[in-house]
Design a protein that fits this description.
Blueprint: H1 2-5, E1 11-13, H2 30-35, E2 39-42, H3 47-55, E3 61-62, H4 78-89, E4 95-96, E5 102-103, E6 122-123, E7 128-131, E8 136-144, H5 145-148, E9 166-170, H6 178-190, E10 199-203, H7 211-224, E11 232-236, E12 247-248, E13 252-256, E14 261-264
Parallel strand pairs: 1-2, 2-3, 8-9, 9-10, 10-11
Antiparallel strand pairs: 3-12, 4-14, 5-6, 7-11, 8-13, 13-14
Helix pairs in contact: 6-7
Amino acid sequence: MAAFSDPSIKGIFTCIGGDDSIRLLPYIDFDVIRRNPKVFLGYSDTTVTHFMCMKAGLSSMYGPSILAEFAENGEIFDYTVKNLEKSLFGNGEIGRVEPSDYWTGELIEWTIDNKDKRKKLEEHTGYEALQGSTPARGRLIGGCIEVIEMLKGTSIWDVSDFDGAIVFFDTSEDTITPRELKYMLRNYGAQGILGRISGMIWSKPYANKYYDEYKDVIRETLAEFGAANLPVLCNANFGHTEPMFVLPYGAMAEIDPVNKTFTILEQAVL
C-alpha cells in the first residue's frame, strides 16, 4: 500500500513468490491502487496480488520476479529481456509472442560460488495445439493454478471476470499430480467457468514433469463439461520454467490452434 500510494514510485517488481500472499487481502485498500496506477510485475504466488489489482481496475503483468529471472546466475535470459522491453516500453500492441528456442527448469542455489554458473538449457519445441480448430480472442486472466485455488470464494473472486476470456494457467514447482489438476479443473467446470471462456493457454510444466499426463487430464476434463472444442495451446514460455514472456491482465489476446500462434493485441502499459 505504501508503494502504491507513493507518487515517486513508478513500478513495483516482486522479489519472489511463496505461498501466503492471500494473507494480504484484509489489508488492501483498493481505492489506493485505483487512484495510483503503476506497473506491477510478478508471478506464482503474486497471482493473488494480480487479482487484487484487477479488482481495483489496474492491468498488472504476470512476468518475471527479481530473484527468479532478473537475478539469474550470470545474467537474465535474452528472451525474457526482449519480452520485458516490448511489454514495459513498447508504444504499440505487443503483437505475436514467439516461443523461445530453449527452456530450463534447473534450480541453482543463490550463492556467491554459483554467481557465474549457467543453467542447463533444453531445446524448446514451440507451442502445441491441444484442441480446437478456430482462432479465439478474449481478455487475459489467469495465473498459477494452485494459487488461484486460494482465491475462490473470496471478495476478489468473480466468475463473471472469465466471460469471453482467454485463461492462462501455470503450474508451480510443487508439481501437482495429474489427479490434483483434474480436481482443480473440475471446479472450474462446476462453477460454469469452462463454458464462459473463449480459449486457454498453458505454460510448460515445471521441469517438464507430467507434460503428457497434464495434456490428457485437460482434454478429458474439458470434454466432461462440454468444452471439447475449446481452443487450447500448451507448452508456452511463462511461469515456472525459464525464460518467460509477460502476460498483461485484461489485454485482448488471440490464440490460433491451427497455426499454433499466440498474439497479444494491445500494449501492456498505457
